[in-house]
Structure formats: structure tokens, C-alpha cells
Amino acid sequence: AQRFTVAIDGPAAAGKGTLAKLIAAHYGLPHLDTGLLYRAVGRKAADLGLDLDDPDAAGAVARSLTPSALDDGSLRGREAGELASRVAVHPSVRSALETFQRDFAGQPAGAVLDGRDIGTVIAPDAEVKIFVTASPEVRARRRTDELAAKGRAPDYERILAEVRERDLRDAGRATAPLKPAADAHLLDTSEMAIDAAFLAARELIDGFL
Ligand code: C5P
């Protein structure tokens, strides 16, 4: 079979992660959720009491990251996402995580990676690039519903404010800002359920194969 790499980028809560998992399972490709790397760095820096805005301190944490740090269940939560986006602005952090991601993207079996800069920086030669978006309101609504389904009592307005804040920080930073690669396919899931988004992604990939 032909090897290929799929780069999936987009803002928080657009459905990238779910889509990446479905694609990886369908095509039998290894999957890397790159947000987890930044989350682990943010979490560890915070646990150590370091200043998240200090590029040297955060960079040192990123260089010392080990795979076992990714197993922490709390990394999936909102707080870790916030910590991640603060340390992700530092070039020292981004470059420390780059080799691991590039190696993953280049492995002989092919790969699926999801993040913010996969199609632009980590795997600019990826055979298929998909930029997944949805309106901030739809993304905040999905997050709110997810939390409600877990028995929590989420505040939609507050989550919407967090979504907007994270968008601004991720798209506004100087290094590797969130933006579609020139050759990325845009997939707006605002009015699409996940199975429809998955079908659209498969059409793109099958069109390449
Ligand atoms: O995708 P996820 O929500 O887990 O990412 C958390 C944060 O990590 C993002 O808001 C972003 O600031 C950062 N990130 C990044 N580059 C990536 C993946 C995540 O800057 N490739």
C-alpha cells in the first residue's frame, strides 16, 4: 500500500481530535495528538511552580519531556489546554518538540497528526492536509454539551470566552501561528455532524490515493 501522512490542523474544539482518530483507525495509520505534548509541558511547568511566560524555563521543561508524561489523564482538561497555549508561544518550547513530531510524521508506515502547525511547519510535505474549523459559538456549544454529558454544570458564556481567547493567542503568536497551509483543504464543521466530516475527509484522502 502507498504510504501517506495526513496533517490535521484547526482551532480548539473544532473536532480535529475525533476526526484524526477516526481517520487513523480507518486507514490503519499511527496517530499523534500533538496538543498533548504542549499540554504536558504546560502542566509540568505549572507543577514545578515555574513562570510559564519564561521561555528558558519552559524550554527546559520541553527538552526534558518523556513519553510517560503523556499518560496523565488530567492533560485532556480545559486547564491543561490553557497552560499549553501559554507555553506554546515560545520558540524554545516549539523547537524542543519538533524532532519528535517530524520523526513521527516521517515514519515508514505513514501517520496522522493533529495540531495547529502540522501542515505549515511539522509536515509541510504531508500528502493530505485538512484544516478543520467551526464557528466559535458552535465549538463552545460542543464543549458545553460534552461537559454536561459528563454530569458537570458548564457555563456556555464562559466557555465561549475561553474559546475566543485561545483562538486569539494561537492565531496571533509570532512563531507557528494557527493558520491553514496554502494547500490545505478547509473543512468547516459548523453545520456538520462528525460522521459527515469523516465522510468528507475520506473523500479527500481517497481522492489522493
Ligand atoms: O489541540 P489542543 O487543544 O490539545 O492544544 C492545546 C494548545 O497547545 C493549543 O491551544 C495550542 O496553543 C498548542 N498547540 C500548538 N501546536 C500544536 C498543538 C497544540 O501550539 N501543534
Automatic annotation (TrEMBL):
Protein's name according to its UniProt entry: Cytidylate kinase
UniProt source species: Plantimonas leprariae
Pfam families attached to this UniProt entry: Cytidylate_kin
Keyword terms of this UniProt record: ATP-binding, Cytoplasm, Kinase, Nucleotide-binding, Transferase
Coiled coil regions, renumbered to chain: none
EC code: 2.7.4.25
Gene Ontology terms: cellular component: cytoplasm
Residue ranges of domain Cytidylate kinase in the record: 6-195
SUPFAM superfamilies: P-loop containing nucleoside triphosphate hydrolases (SSF52540)
